[in-house]
Amino acid sequence: MQKSKGISSKNKWPYLFITPYFLSYAVLSLFPILFTLYISLTDWDLYGNRNFIGFSNYTQLFFHDAFFWKSLLNVMIFMAVYLPALVLMGMLVASLIESKLIRRKTLFRLSVFSAYMTTPVAVGIIFSLLFDWQGGFFNNMLMELGIIQEKINWLGSASSSRWVVILMVFWKNLGYFVMFYTAGMASIDTSIYEAAVIDGASSKDVFTRITIPLLKPINLFLIITSIISGLQLVEEPMLLFSGWASGSSMVGGPDGSTFTPIWYMFDASFNGSAFKYGKGAAIAYGTFLFIALFSVVGMKWINRGGDDK
Amino acid sequence: MHNLFSKKASVIALVLTLCFTLVLAGCGSGSNNTSGDSSSTNSADHSNDPANASGKLTVWGWDKAWFEGTGAKFNEKFPNVKLEFVEVSAGDYLKKIQTSIAAGSGLPDIIWGEAAFRGALYELNVLQSLSEEPYNFDTSNLLDFELPLLTNSKGELVGLEQSGSPGALAYKRDLAKEYFGTDDPDALTAMFPDWDTFIAKGKEVYEKSGGKTFMLGSLMDAYTILSNQGTTAVVDGTKVNTQELLRIFTQLQSIRDNNAEGKLAMWSPTWNASYSQDNVIFYPSANWSPEFVIKPNDKASNGRWGLMVPPEGGYPYGGTTIGIWKDSKNKDAAWAYLNWLLGTDEGAEANFATSDYILPLKSFFKDTSKLSSGADEYFGGQDLGKFWVEKVFPNMKSKAVTKYDQDIYSSSELVLQVMAQDNSFDAKQALDKWEEQLKKNHPELTFE
Q1: Percent of chain B with pLDDT over 70
Q2: Minimal CA–CA distance to B50: which of B334, B344, B336?
Q3: What is the spatial distance between Cα B73 and Cα B376, in angstroms, rounded to a whole number?
Q4: How many domains does chain B have?
Q5: Is there a single domain that holds both residue B205 and residue B293?
Q6: Which residues on B lie below 8 Å from A266 (Cβ)?
Q7: What are the ABC transmembrane type-1 domain coordinates in residue numbering (chain A) (predicted)?
Q8: Can you tell me the mean pLDDT for A255-266?
């Protein structure tokens, strides 16, 4: 066989068939990505500025902007709490659903997963109603039960509003994790379990020695994608604090405690009256750098044994 | 070999050409076709008679009932101007405008600017100045408080008001009688000449009710009035008048310290529910509030509500500027529409007939008897039209709008939430936090 010499009349068809995808990729993804990079090097705003300013936006962002670092810190705090919780609870719930104790598995799978299908707007409204200061369901319940004497402003203080956001993300994503784990568990060959049981392994050993190691690829996928989406977190906190009047929003929540990088990008470019597209693009690229960094670190950490991919 | 190469080359050339065509098609539309949504069919008659104006006008807006009602009346007079309405909610409006500008696509011939964002809209340089030739709008016919609301930072008039939006205080008559001994609006206004008296009374009400009843729903309710009263703008150019803001925050702190606010988040479901309860007496109210806020939130009552002039006078609350896109191809028709609808007594009458909107034109105010809306049972027999025209409009003042207004509001909302719950958080700390927030996206501001 002759070695392939690029496009020939014989193999042009595959190229032609994949061309539409790459064309749309070039126009809808590659061009915006590169154009955003260009914008991040300018001081473009809607008030008439559009000058090339080199890396000024980046130096400002990385060395002089406390809001950017705070927003990054916030999403890290969120992830540090909800990711381990999701992994643990996800596995636990999944193994419960998959166990012999539960009969109507589909019903349970669906009910856990339904939170994930709920639109973020609805989730935001549900949680603002639940945790409203004077009329919220949660405060009323605690008062009725006599646990608290005075209503707590959950969305008014920095630490409690962080917990509410964590709870939102956890509640929303638990079903997604459970779904993957149940699929993963179902795909593990039952003969392995049977062999372990015959050898006298306890159910705890089976879980820690067989289930968890064999779920590693699923963990890798879930954790890496969660880091990516976690750093891009924006809808949940934004809707929680979007305010009831149209158009206004308490940007960043109390004391900026739920401010996230992407919210900052939206705020600098579109939301308020700054319209600083250059700055917004730099925030987007800055966040991208961190996403890349943390994804690589996360991947290395999970694969630290180095035995398999 | 040669044949192969040329085939390969032709495929690559085809792909590249397609790529470029698509990319250029994607971003090039704005540069040569700035008319965008507006039709370029305007055959505007260049004779001076505006009644001959013709063309198709595209309008982006949210108040469809008003648009159609007044539009029909306009078309009776100007049958050759076709109006096309594109519904855009007020909350999304500025985003739609800015993405259209950034993408270089066209804007509608007629642009609306709601109170919350009109300051920013004015500075985007998309509105036609009406102070210039050939428009030369006579601003002396506008009520005095209107001019700062319709003027950009260059001092140009960039639009006309859809409806003068006077702000007052709505109150529950039964609670007023219980705590102040009267429910007469004039007597109440006389009882509360300034905010200090109002706050002192708030303390009494709180104590008398055993901590159940408050003067206002939230600090934002108070801020809505305080920040719009007077003529001193918070930002002038890029200078922030921190003293003015400190004055407002100090008053708000006093409201909190004396328990004159109920810690309900303004516009939240609990705040809305309080309209039909007994925990709050007063609410800021504009002339649009009875229809859109008070009645929907308190459907069951009758004769329970009243309107009064607030301590230290009326204030602008809301409002919408309507202007002409400066690159519109249909400016003659657009001007004929705008000027007739919002600049003449005839248009003012159409406005009042359609939606009870009151145009802030001096000529229209000469005879206020036609603006009476009759005794309103729901408001204990008060004539609301007469109330606005006689009690509030005459003593209204306003401050210049700025491009920072929206961010000023959201920064204030943020610090006032902290103030509401943390009794050790004082006005000075509020100001510091507020400055920090505002500087985030506006480093050019200086604080004095």
Answers
A1: 89
A2: B336
A3: 27
A4: 2
A5: yes
A6: none
A7: 72-298
A8: 92
Residues A81, A13, single domain; the answer is no
The predicted-structure confidence for B266-295, as pLDDT tens digits, reads as follows 888 889 999 999 999 999 999 999 988 999
Interface test with A, best of B154, B268, B288 (most A CBs within 10 A): B268
Q: Which range marks the domain in which residue A13 is found?
A: 8-40
CATH number at residue A292: 1.10.3720.10
In this prediction, residues B364-378 reach a mean pLDDT of 88
Q: Are B441 and A132 a contacting pair at CB < 8 A?
A: no
Does A27 lie in the same domain as A77? no
Does residue A134 share a domain with residue A18? no
Strand ranges (E), B288-405: 305-308, 315-316, 320-324, 375-376, 382-383
User: Same structural domain for residues A290 and A205?
Assistant: yes
> ipTM of this predicted complex?
0.82
Question: Based on the domain organization, do B339 and B271 belong to the same domain?
Answer: no
- pLDDT value, residue B203: 96
For residues B156 and B174, membership in a common domain is answered with: no
Amino acid symbol at A45? D
Provide mean pLDDT across the span B312-341.
94
Look at A7 and B440 and tell me if their CB atoms are within 8 Å: no
Q: Are residues A12 and A111 in the same domain?
A: no
Residues comprising chain A, all counted: 309
Number of residues that this document lists for chain B: 448
For an interface test with A, the pick among B404, B406, B417 (most A C-beta atoms closer than 10 Å) comes out as B417
What is the mean pLDDT of the segment spanning A142-165?
Answer: 90
Q: Are residue B352 and residue B225 in the same domain, yes or no?
A: no
Q: How confident is the model at residue B49 (pLDDT cuts 50, 70, 90)?
A: low
Residue B15 has pLDDT above 90, yes or no: no
In sequence order, the 6+-apart residues with CB closer than 8 A to the CB of B340 are: B50, B74, B77, B78, B346, B347
Range of lowest pLDDT (A67-71, A203-207, B181-185): A203-207
B384–chain A nearest CA distance, Å: 25
Is the model's pLDDT at B351 over the cut of 50? Answer: yes
* pLDDT at residue B399 is higher than 90: yes
Whether the CB of B227 is below 8 Å from some CB of chain A: the reply is no
Q: For residues B395 and B260, state if they share a domain.
A: yes
Identity of the residue numbered B116: A
Burial class (CB in 10 A: 0-12, 13-18, 19+), A234: middle
For residue B96, give the nearest of B109, B106, B85 by alpha carbon.
B106
Report if residue A309 sits inside a domain.
no
Token couple for B406:
């929206």
Same domain, A73 and A137: yes
**Domain of residue B281, residue span:** 166-316+375-447
- Alpha-carbon torsion angle A29, A30, A35, A36, nearest 10: 60
- Structure-token pair, residue A109: 């799978």
We report the CATH number of the domain holding residue B209 as 3.40.190.10
C-alpha–C-alpha distance, residues B367 and A181, integer Å:
76
- The one-character DSSP state at A273 is S
Does residue A38 register a pLDDT over 60? yes
Question: Looking at the domain assignment, is residue B16 inside a domain?
Answer: no
- Residue B50 to chain A, least CA–CA distance (Å): 33
Beta carbons of B70 and B357 less than 8 angstroms apart: no
Q: Total structural domains in chain A?
A: 2
Q: What mean pLDDT is predicted for residues B377-392?
A: 93
Chain B environment of A19 (Cβ under 8 Å): 15, 18
Q: How many CB atoms lie within 10 A of CB A122?
A: 10
Mean pLDDT, chain B, integer: 87
For residue B414, is pLDDT > 50?
Answer: yes
Same domain, B343 and B393: no
Inside any domain, residue B45 = no
**B189, two tokens:** 């206004």
CA distance, residue B149 to nearest chain A CA (Å): 17
Q: Tell me: pLDDT of B82 over 50.
A: yes
Q: Please tell me the predicted confidence (pLDDT) of residue B45.
A: 40
